[in-house]
Write a structure and sequence with these properties.
about 25% strand; Yope Regulator, Chain: A; 5-stranded antiparallel β-sheet
Amino acid sequence: MHETLAQLVNSAREQQVVATGTHPDGMEFLACPLDDAMLVGVGYSSNAAHWLRTRSVLRKRASNMARFGSWLPALLSDGSFKLTMRIPHDGKITREMLMAAEELLT
């Protein structure tokens, strides 16, 4: 999963476009270049997001802000649910960051 998201971030950065992808387990990724950073997202489409309990995600995030606080929950207009994070343009998403997002979503 980490490699998929890292490739999307690099592609979005190089081409200055929003890049999206899906892992075989159904998890979706997005990378969006901003003026001063890169927005990355990890989550599920509207079809798969129905099982996700957003209250549970919010409670889990609030219970350990040191680990989960940099991931911001977002319910998008298409019904998908993503955890989003801003990283510096030259920054990288680490395996630990992605593991924290996965843990929040489970």
